[in-house]
């Protein structure tokens, strides 16, 4: 969880979306203290914690994650065969267009 604190150190206001792995009380409390609205479901093993979940926003987070899962079906993108960033970005765009069309 240390890396999550470091990555979100500059987060101020707005929404922070994540999966159940990021439901640690220390992270949620730190984000709430900085004015962020946390949209993270409670982990199933944390039976003592209850928090409302904005399902509409959480569904949007899943759609973004699902897009990256579909994009990684293209082996060339998942393993990053391309050495140059511009070529890699071109294959990411191609994969995104093919994912969008099919």
Radius of gyration: 17 Å
- Residue-averaged pLDDT: 89
**Largest beta sheet: strand ordering:** 1-2
Largest sheet: 2 strands, parallel
Count of separate DSSP helical elements? 5
- Flag low-confidence runs: none
**Which percent range fits the helix content?**
40-55%
Distance between the termini: 37 Å
Q: Which band does the percent of strand residues land in?
A: 5-15%
Tell me the overall shape.
Answer: elongated
Report the order of strands and helices.
HEHEHHH
What's the β-strand tally?
A: 2
Name the structural class. Answer: mainly alpha
Tell me what you see in this structure.
- The chain is mainly α and 102 residues long.
- The chain is built from 5 helices and 2 strands.
- It is elongated.
- It starts with a helix and ends with a helix.
- The relative contact order is 0.11.
- The model has no long low-confidence stretch (mean pLDDT 89).
Write out key terms for the chains shown.
elongated, two-stranded parallel sheet, mainly alpha, 2 strands, single chain, 102 residues
Give the arrangement of secondary structure elements.
Elements: H1 2-7, E1 15-17, H2 25-33, E2 37-39, H3 55-71, H4 75-78, H5 85-101
Parallel strand pairs: 1-2
Describe what is shown at a glance.
This protein has 102 residues and is mainly alpha-helical.
């Amino acid at each position: 969880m240390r890396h999550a604190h470091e990555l979100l150190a500059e987060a101020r206001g707005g929404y922070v979306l994540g999966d159940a792995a990021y439901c640690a009380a220390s992270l949620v409390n730190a984000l709430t203290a900085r004015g962020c609205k946390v949209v993270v479901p409670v982990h199933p093993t944390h039976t003592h914690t209850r928090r409302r979940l904005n399902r509409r926003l959480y569904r949007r987070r899943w759609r973004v994650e699902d897009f990256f899962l579909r994009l990684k079906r293209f082996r060339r993108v998942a393993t990053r065969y391309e050495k140059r960033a511009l070529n890699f970005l071109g294959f990411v765009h191609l994969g995104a267009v093919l994912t969008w069309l099919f």
